[in-house]
Amino acid sequence: MASQGLGKEQSIQEMIARSRNNKGKKFIEKLMPIILVITALISVLTTIGIVFTLIFETFEFFQRVSITDYLFGKEWLPFSGSEPLYGILPLVLGTLKVSVIAACVAVPLGIAAAIYLSEYASDKTRRTIKPILEVLAGVPTIVYGFFALTFVTPLLQELIPSLKIFNALSPGIVVGIMILPMIASLSEDAMSSVPNSIREGALALGATKLEVSIKVVLPAAISGIIASVVLAVSRAIGETMIVSLAGGATPTFDFNVTGSIQTMTAYIVQVSSGDAGYGTTIYYSIYAVGFTLFVFTLIMNLLAQYISKRFREEY
Fold it and tell me: In which family does this protein belong, per the annotation (predicted)?
């Protein structure tokens, strides 16, 4: 009887301990959704705040400068004392020149690296090379900028004597090197997701390893590859320090890649460093340029999402 009473007492104590633990678990279960909602709202509200700040300040700029002159003007001379000119086309063209050169460097090299890692490299080689390749993505862009200015430009001047110290070619190449790991890594992930049965079927029909890689795996993973390219190019459009250091500060509306240029991000850096007073037209121009850059990157990201959904293969 005494042992039965002791057993009941112990079981009651265990029940009380369990109920206390259950109360703590229930409290945590109720608390966690609230915390997650708050964190999600913070990111959403931050994005909304950034967009509205750009819109309001850009609207103030267009109160002073004609939107037609801004969108279609071919001269960008905000610091001209007599008659400042705010035609965005030279900055847009400078940005596009760097981005196109970067894409010409990064896309073929990145896809070639992805094909090797996905189709040819052994597991040991892949585990070794891929982290080394992705280290490039962690290098600060200011280091890339000095690399472009002090190494790549003098090297190119040996091949192109007419190349100026500040130009579009050198930063374009280095930006391409910077975005190469993004294309290689994302494209390799897309190609690795293609089922092996497709490869085996093509090999069984007599296709070579190269033919399987180029004509079978590459088309099957095309949605992920194109999305990686679009995202990488949008990253190149928004690059700042490399083009600021190696590109120069001369906005020109031409297609020459050997002379000094200025991109949209480089202009924002120039004005933000203290070249314009608060409340001036030049000050508000950085918001207009920033909003233009925001529209560019937004379009690129939406395009990447559309391509990814439009050409996605279901296995």
Answer: Belongs to the binding-protein-dependent transport system permease family. CysTW subfamily.
Cα distance between the two ends of the chain: 67
Q: Where are the domains of the chain?
A: 2-63, 76-310
Q: What angle do CA 52, 55, 61 make, to 5 degrees?
A: 145
Residue type (1 letter), 239 = E
**Tens place of pLDDT per residue across the chain (315 aa):** 444 544 555 566 665 556 555 666 677 777 888 888 888 889 888 988 888 888 888 888 888 888 888 888 888 888 776 788 888 899 999 999 999 999 999 999 999 989 888 888 888 888 888 888 878 777 888 899 999 989 999 999 888 888 888 898 999 999 999 999 889 888 888 888 888 888 888 888 888 888 888 888 888 888 888 888 888 888 888 888 888 888 888 888 888 888 888 889 888 888 877 666 777 888 888 899 989 988 888 888 888 777 777 766 655
| Tokens 């990145």, located at residue | 110
